[in-house]
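Problem statement: downstream parser choked on a complex file, so we are re-checking the raw output for the zinc ion run. The parser issue turned out to be on our end (a line-ending mismatch), but while we're here, posting the original submission so the record is complete.
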Amino acid sequence: MSSIFSDFFRVTAHGLGRTLLLTLLLVTTQAFLFGQTYDLVLKNGRVIDPANSLDQVMDVAIKDGRIAKVDKAIESGAALKYIDVRGLIVTPGLIDIHTHVFVGGKPDKFADGTFSVSADDFCPRSGVTTVVDAGTSGWKNFEVFKYNVIDRSKTRILAFLNIAGKGMSGDPDQQKIEEMNTEAAVAMAQKYPEWIVGFKIGHYEGSEWSPFDRTIDAGNRTNKPVLVECHLPQYPLAMQLQKMRKGDIITHSFEEITEREPVIDGNGNLRPYVVDANKKGVLFDVGHGGYGFWFSEAIPALREGLEPNTLGTDLHRFSINAGMKSMTNLMSKYLAMGMSLNKVLEKATVNAARAIKRPELGSLSPGNPADIAVFSLYTGDFGFTDAGGNRLKGKQKLETELTIRDGSIIWDLNGRNAKPFLN
Ligand SMILES: [Zn+2]
């Protein structure tokens, strides 16, 4: 206290000359700080941001973990750090809406998601900054998932909460209808609105429709979407699609070998109820996984006008080393199937953000979290496989150069952010 007063009196006592000097010093300091407005600028990249209809060479500036500016030329001297990304593609960080990443929590011998992989082991290297876990946890163990995994990951992890209390635990309780508690699921979603983006029905083997109906009911009560992952014949596809609402998501859309009817009929046409559901606004997710993606379905579907809305990978232990491999591999596969780069990116960014009602993600709009992916697009002779072991040749392949989450670089393939080694 005394030093503040003594400073004040000293400045006053030294009169006008001293005051002017202090003012000048303050103005100079502010100008210096003002000049360095941004923490990081990505220079000269081909910015593709489908949400903002951008596809041109631009600079992207980041400040305090958020997108600060996207412009044709951000003045030099305006940032603490520059990375030249000339020749590379700069996009919003990718969003994978179908993953299984509940690892490490063991409230009992089942409940750790036996198919799961660690998001941070696979996502940054694929340009993915946000994943949605597809019901690996339920209302009984979501908090274990949150504490052990979500709160400790560099990847942003959101969740579709399983209507079954223990999620996809393998526990026999997973099949018990009394464990499928709408009130408890809704209460958990309301407790964690920042993380729980919707509800999931899947892997129920009985013939009752109440698990399905309760999941939709939870969606209705919270205005959140439902992710449907039902393969078994007790739930005919037509009936599932009829019960689903606008904005609900069906996954494994292009599965062929399944007891559930595929979307394409024996004549290579879309089934009428699939067309109707698409018109109604049901969203079709790829959900590639180990068995969920077949060229024999996906290619005719594209031809007949059923594009996937999102490119969920169904990331888990049995898909990463099979045909799926990674989000960038799935995107490159769609390039090989004839989809444009802009459209592929739209599905992997803004479409996914809209599907989970998180408009602050999936675009490079100023003010949004600075989640960014930077890719090389290589040309050459490549091959892509489906669940049936079929190979499709392709000429383009995406590779992730940089991944940025909330302004922090979490993947840097070629050390673009590192300092030069001098010897
Ligand atoms: Zn899944």
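For whoever reads this later: The chain has twelve helices and 15 strands.
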